[in-house]
Write a structure and sequence with these properties.
single chain, 442 residues, alpha/beta, Rossmann fold, six-stranded parallel β-sheet
Length: 442
């Protein structure tokens, strides 16, 4: 009988609920924060804007890229009489004073409660300034960081992608990696791009990638294929593009592809959808696999003596949890004690069960666990490796277990060189990280 702890509908005390993600308002902000030529206006109260400015970017390995953004800073008067005037004035001033290509309005909880018609206000501002305005209704109570990012992607696909364009053969839109959300986002984009190029294809646009421009967004319809590398991020946006422009979409429904087995399957699916020859696909897979096996062979004693014997507890977003679980257990044969997942839906829970059956393992499954759950499960299962959030360092030290802090928040480390956790090379990075953390605790 599989043990499942599901906190989606059975919350405990608020004091026990510090999560590694924020609200939908913050998630929408992440999409705009890395785009070039984007001016963000937050239509919210001062507190939301302050928290966003101080914590959201820095929570991901202290990433602190300058962002063009301002806020209407709604007051009690705005809440009572409406904040539309403040938003309209802000849009005009921003367009006049900043070198931007388009504006992005993100609503907070107070603006959502007021019911300001931001679409109508933004349309009037566009007529005045000539700057396109992207509107995202992302009041924080609507969901978490991942939900908000999905709202922003869908809004981009609906509002900024305008015209049909000639298709570029064997080109893809890469969708599903959240910028800034975790330490490895840039490396993940680079690795997925590299693998797509290894079969002779190209990446048309990354939705949303670092430095993405309005021109990159407009170019989305010219791809041959949408490739969504997550089962929970970017699917709605890809569906909008597919429906509007008749484009096929390939979805990785078992989380990020990590390691040789999952990455080979993913590359084969993408290649077949692009009508790449079987010979080219197989040649790329063999080359990547041989490269990984060659690296592993040089350190086989470390792998056997230190890494493979670890019994692990993983706490991560669904796309990381599924992908790393498939890699560590399905490919390497490591034993999972607990699979704990945030940002989970019913389909994700079903997929975890399918993978457990496939790999013949029976870990505890925890959905949206709070800190109290985490401590209890660490005591009950006594794992020898904890793969979790950077903020779990204190719990890990208390329990004397090595912590591999991969998922947000991450204040204990930075990453200047963009390492991946996805793809063939991502598997090697995970092994490096596990060895280092285990040896540090010995």
């Amino acid at each position: 009988m599989r043990r499942i702890i599901d906190r989606r509908t059975n919350r405990q005390a608020l004091s026990e609920l510090p999560y590694g993600y924020s609200c939908s308002f913050c998630g929408a902000f992440l999409a705009g924060a890395v785009m070039k030529g984007c001016g963000i206006i937050t239509h919210c109260s001062p507190g939301c804007n302050f928290s966003l400015n101080i914590t959201q970017l820095g929570a991901s390995g202290r990433f602190s890229k300058p962002v063009n953004f301002a806020s209407t800073l709604l007051t009690e008067k705005d809440v009572i009489f409406g904040g539309g005037g403040s938003l309209y004035d802000s849009l005009l001033r921003f367009a006049d004073n900043f070198d931007i290509d388009f504006e992005m309005v993100i609503t907070g909880c107070s603006a959502e409660t007021i019911g300001d018609n931001i679409s109508e206000i933004s349309s009037r501002a566009f007529e005045k300034t000539g700057k396109p305005v992207l509107t995202v209704n992302a009041g924080g109570y609507k969901g978490n960081t991942v939900d908000g990012y999905n709202m922003a992607l869908k809004s981009i696909a609906e509002q900024l992608v305008i015209d049909e364009m000639p298709r570029v053969d064997k080109s893809v839109n890469l969708i599903g990696i959240i910028p800034v959300h975790d330490l490895f986002w840039r490396g993940n984009i680079n690795e997925m791009t590299r693998l797509i190029q290894s079969i002779g294809a190209t990446v048309n646009s990354v939705l949303v990638g670092e430095g993405m421009t309005l021109a990159d967004i407009r170019r989305l319809p010219s791809a041959s294929l949408n490739v969504v590398v997550s089962e929970s991020v970017g699917i709605e946006a890809a569906a909008v593009i597919s429906e509007r422009f008749g484009m096929e979409t390939v979805i990785c429904d078992e989380g990020y592809p990590v390691g040789t087995v999952s990455s080979s399957k993913w590359l084969e699916r993408v290649g077949k959808a692009l009508n790449v020859s079987t010979e080219i696909i197989n040649s790329a897979i063999v080359a990547e696999t041989n490269s990984v096996l060659g690296s592993v062979a040089n350190y086989i004693s470390a792998l056997n003596d230190v890494i493979l014997k670890q019994r692990y507890f993983i706490l991560a977003d669904s796309f990381y949890a599924l992908g790393i679980f498939s890699y560590l257990t399905g490919e390497l044969g490591m034993t999972p004690e607990v699979i704990a997942v945030s940002t989970c839906n019913d389909r994700t829970l079903e997929k975890i069960g399918e993978l457990c059956d496939r790999f013949s393992v029976n870990p505890v499954i925890a959905i949206d666990p709070d800190n109290n759950d985490i401590e209890k499960l660490l005591d009950e299962t006594e794992p020898t490796l904890f793969i979790g959030r950077g903020e779990d360092i204190q719990i890990a030290r208390k329990k004397g277990v090595p912590l591999l802090g991969l998922t947000p928040t991450n204040l204990h480390r930075i990453q200047l060189y963009p390492l991946p956790l996805t793809g063939f090379n991502g598997g090697l990075v995970i092994l490096d990280e596990i060895f280092r953390e285990v040896m540090n605790v010995r």
